[in-house]
Amino acid sequence: MKLREIFVKNFRCLVDVSIPIQDTTVLVGENNSGKTALLDALKIVLPRSLQGRGIAFDEYDYYMSKVADSPQTSEGIIIELWFREDKPDEWPNSLIQALSDIIQTDPLKDLDSIGLRVSSKYDTTSKEIVTKWEFLTLDGQPLGGKGASSGNLTRFLSYIRLFYLSALRDSDTEFSPRSQFWGRILRDLKISEEQTMMLSEELGKLNEAVLKADPRLDQIRSTLENIQKIMWLGDGQNTSIQALPLKPWDLMSKSVVVIKAHGNEVDFPLSRHGQGIQSLAVLFLFQAYIDVLLKPTFQPETEAILALEEPEAHLHPQATRALARNLDEVKSQKIVSSHSPYFIQEIPFTQIRMFRRNGSSSKILYVKRSFSVKVPNTPELLKFCKNNAPKFDYHEGTTTLHVNGKMGEREYRKLLMIYPGQTDIHVQLKRLYGESQIYLSNGDLADLDTYAKRIRGEVLFARAWLLCEGQSEYLLFRFFAELLEKPLDQFGITVIDFQNNGSPGAFVGLARTFETPWIMVCDNDAAGQEFVKQIEMRGLLPDEIKELVRPLPESGMDLEMFLIKNGFAQEYVQILAERKISLVKKHDEAGFEDELASKIRADKTGYTIALLEELRRTSADSTRVPSFFAKIITDVVAKAVL
Amino acid sequence: MRTKELMKAWEELSPIQRQAAEWADGPLLVLAGPGSGKTKVLTCRIARLLESTLDENFRVLGLTFTNKAADEMRSRVANFVPGQEERLFLGTFHSFCADVLRLHGTHLGINPNFHIYSQDADLQAVLNNAVEEAKKISDVVSDLDKKTLSVIQRLKAFLILPEQCCEIFKNKEFGERMAAVYPAYEAELCKRNALDFNSLILKTYQLLTKFPVFAKRYRIVYPYICIDEFQDANQAQYGLIRALAGDQHRNLFVVADDDQIIYQWNGASHERLKELLNDFSPMVIQLPMNYRCPPEIVELANNLIRHNFLRTADKKPLEAFRHGLGKGTVRLLECFPDVEAEAAEVAKDIKNLHSGHFGSVVVLGRNRKLLDGVDIALRHEGLPAVISQRKDEFESTPFVWLHSTLRLANDGQNRRYLEAVCGSFAQLTQVEIDVEDVISQSQALSMGYLQIWIRLLNQKTTETFVKEIVNETSRCLVRGRDFQAFSKSALAWFTSLAQAQRQAESDPYNEVFTRYDEEKLVWEELMGEIKRNLGEEPTLEAFLQELQMRSKEPPPKANTVVLMTIHGAKGKEFDHVYLIGLVDDELPSFQSKKKGDRSQEMEEERRNCFVAITRTIRTLTLSYGKKYRGWPKEPSRFLFEMGLLKR
pTM for this one? Predict the structure, then answer.
């Protein structure tokens, strides 16, 4: 049983968000953008025990944005979790049998789901905060009949367990006998009665030997025995000294994990190792717990959700990357928050949820594989969906049309024709059409993921992107920006040379998905125009294209020609001369620029590097920056600062 | 076996009973004669299924035709395997369907908070409105169609949907009318968010067939289905079982006796058993041994039922387990001159023979009229007597108030419930609240009727004993939805109210609290049974739905003669049975005689007689007269067939 969607309303800064959840889901975003709020929301809906769930929320949990706001004026917190089958018959029969009273089924797709809602709202009649736990019908109504019975929650929680590991993982607490995993493992140790007796006996002997080793101990014991004279405690010897715990469990509770450090022969207890090792140990402990104890403790079908905050804490970059890859080994659903590019570079974009603060609330952005709109049910629509399955599907219960891909122009026209003259629906369909244009195909995503790996996930942390064709532009932009005293790194701007890393369309799709501001520069030749066309296909309006896509100024012009024409011919001639490459044409002869450009094109990047070296050597200043580049840099910085 | 109770019950099973109780997988038909211990077999079987699979989650579905049978079996199973109640649904077809529709009815547009209309008056009101609506769109519909309630019920009993009904009728014109009225009736029910008994079954059938995923789902949850008294199933109920079982589900455990079909008028038929044999090819186990009746009566029963042709081909005759009780076990009273004399003499006979043990006597008659005569005669003799019959609504003022308050809490804008709340509360407390005031304020403030009713009461009265219960109503039903707490408070309040009034020795006590004590028992009993069926904390709407499906008839008082129709006596047993009115035109009925000696109807009458006599544990007394309602009658043919009279 997998968690597939979380819906939150008015909980801290999460005012109205809906987040699809995958087997692994990674939350990224600046501090205070709501990542912890989301994990806390999960903790509240899936508590470890049901005690005290009436007071699950404190007063600062209710979304408040104005001074006069209070929990009493809040519209109320709603947290909904939806567990859903990915395909028919996925959930085992025994699970369906046990949870039959709360499982709802999509009758056409044959997909089972469970919806659980916690709502908390001030009730004006009873003048108190009422917190309710309800299982839901597919359209979000509370279930009646047996579905409303209170025993359902207890039973449900024995099938789904949430484990929360916070950023501050301390092995001392996590490996204590009372901890959630280690303690459980220790308590669950099964030692036969016979063995227990034997061990107790052995321990007793050992204890005696220790006591006899130093006669002073026995002396102390007999002194202490005087207690008995003051308080009568019964016959026999009542006072003893235990050098060792005499019960096997007592002994086990004292057990510690020891690790030999590199090149050392002494076993050091875990707590004496570095923070990083401790952190990792706790994670692996969780894995061990899932593997060994989860199912025996609860049900054979019980599944775990691991909410993990900043797993990268205290870890070396390589270790962080290894951890990200290892996370797959943990047999549970994982919801991870992270600030580490090293971690995120290993995570496919589809698994990333980007939290962005937007005034007093947050929004959550992610790569959408499906787009939806609510439109009324008609026989024509059903027919259309049937003919265009699985790209289009319609859910009758919620009257929602889904398009699982990029909607084509013709498909759009056909949909409009299903609702002739109904302008309000046409507006909705137009929005759907527009939204679906940012759809990223599997090919796009594969390219993007490879790229992200190479540049360490940095793109996701950038405040703005500057898209350019190749490495020459990449180097030039960074250099010019320095000359303009606007170093791009300082403004959080990432320059992306898209030609080697996929297609500009894919990057623009990604930028729109995560709402990252961007500007793109390209040659004004045939190839450049092809790039512009790709971007047009992402559903941008002509005005947006004009503002964001900046081809070099003259028709047919590429970067080399642009630089020659914009004051760098001199430097290039000099560089060629150093490389003993001579030119046929003279400086003022017709065709000189073409010949020069053709030589440079033979090694574009090489000449760019040489050019930049030369400019640095001669201490070029901001006057050398062509106004075309200067404008782009100013514009993109303005977007990043916004 | 984990419990002594189960072990003991198991040991008591005969080898053939045990064979049935041990049945694991695959379809089985148990042909169980009267008194053959079928309930024991069924409960042992269910208990064993549950006990041998303690670490599994599947549930067992047990379907019955009466709540009584379900309640009894549930408590037996709970006794055999404690703690497994959650893995068992034991209830009537209707109760099961209500449960399904509460959970998944939304896919057919049924709000889980639906009402169940069980009374003809309610349904007639629905039909009247429907006909008015239908008249607007169809010229052929007229007020005449307000008499088609039974037609609609029959259509439903045959699983015919509104859109299919036009072609069903031979009479084209009538078909056309029904094609307008039936959909309008359904639309009216839907508007009121209500279902009648037959639509509980029909809608569930529709859900399972229109969306096979739900049938699949219920097959997973209930891999074992047991059906009690299968012979009573009509087309709709059997259709439901077929839909539920599908082609894969074979674990059907069916108990039936084709000699006890007495619900032919409701669609039950011996054909159903044939269909079952055809569709599932079950193995058949016969339980002919009768543990209830003396051998003398078993012989009568065998003599009688032999004359039926429409029954399982190789059905074994009943075998008596018990020893003979000797003379007096079966008595045919000398022919009386008329029905009045018959009633009077039967009353005297009961008085003479069973004084002090009237509770062990039942008087059975084919129809209610016959019973009325004996009822009067018994009272004339000074004997306590009661005619047993289904009771749809509570009658005593306190429970009318309690029930309608709960209904109003569940259905905030229902005028009828509001009227009942105001009326009964005024009788209880002399505080009058005007229905129209409540309604107009409710519209102005957009609050529910109950809330307004509470407001108005708080304004109107300062008396503590009224305030007390009003506050409780508000606390339990408006702020919370804890109807069980409300019920508790209300009962406590009634008790103090009754005491106060009794002390005042005022007359109203007698009137207001008439039948209060017996209905209190019924209320508590029903509350307990419903909780055992639905779980400790049923929702208010589910509770009210279940309550609607159950009879509110109180158990007979001690030492009281009970009078019953044969239909009412089905599934029961009594020490001393009086079967009256054994003449042609009564048993067998006039209608069946008209259909002919070898008609299905005549066979059904014979089975009625068979059922009646096999209720007997100790003695059976039969009676007949010469004249009924002024007409001379012949002794019942069944008396000859049983061998009690010779031609």
Answer: 0.86
